[in-house]
Specification:
The complex is a heterodimer of chains A (114) and B (112).
Chain A lengths: L4 E3 L2 E4 L5 E6 L6 E8 L3 E9 L2 E5 L6 E5 L5 E5 L8 E8 L9 E2 L3 E5 L1
Chain B lengths: L3 E2 L4 E5 L4 E3 L2 E2 L5 E8 L5 E7 L5 E3 L5 E5 L4 E6 L8 E9 L3 E4 L3 E6 L1
Parallel strand pairs in B: 2-12
Antiparallel strand pairs in B: 1-4, 3-9, 5-6, 5-10, 7-8, 8-9, 10-11, 10-12
Classes of the chains: A mainly beta (114), B mainly beta (112).
Chain lengths: 114, 112
Amino acid sequence: DSGVTQTPKHLITATGQRVTLRCSPRSGDLSVYWYQQSLDQGLQFLIQYYNGEERAKGNILERFSAQQFPDLHSELNLSSLELGDSALYFCASSPRQGYNSPLHFGNGTRLTVT
Amino acid sequence: AQSVTQLDSQVPVFEEAPVELRCNYSSSVSVYLFWYVQYPNQGLQLLLKYLSGSTLVESINGFEAEFNKSQTSFHLRKPSVHISDTAEYFCAVLFTGNQFYFGTGTSLTVIP
């Protein structure tokens, strides 16, 4: 058990809809990362937050947004969903910025857009 | 630009045979190196890490990886694989600036 919790585990929704994925980092970790994993694109970095502030952006679409709350949990919002958004979405956490600690991953949320 | 390359997308190997999964990265500046394993329908789990010190690092289940600074490589090896090693393996590099870069993954299939 990595200590990173992601909910829900599975999500099935229709095109055009909006969903919210939730992540609770390991106790004490300040940094949260979001990744998208699909068969054709592999593991893609979306966005990173550190202690409530956005720190880095990767290949995140404008239809997607995220935030990290004061209690350090994070949410990834996906809107105007398309079939191609179907993927595994992972959250990972690490202790703090600039620290050589590995990322610890949750078990992911599998999103299916129909 | 910084990058991580896993040269083999799929590696089939017979049970009890040795295996090497290759990983190269783009920069010779200070880096921290990691291997992750992903079993079906699960998240990525840390397999081993190189932060400093000895260039050879080992995991609890028999895998080892060697940091080679001159060749900018961090290949993963196991002298004798087991069926349970069948999984996807990801190499990851933490470059200065706290940005993680992942390779595209290598699917290891152990054949009975």
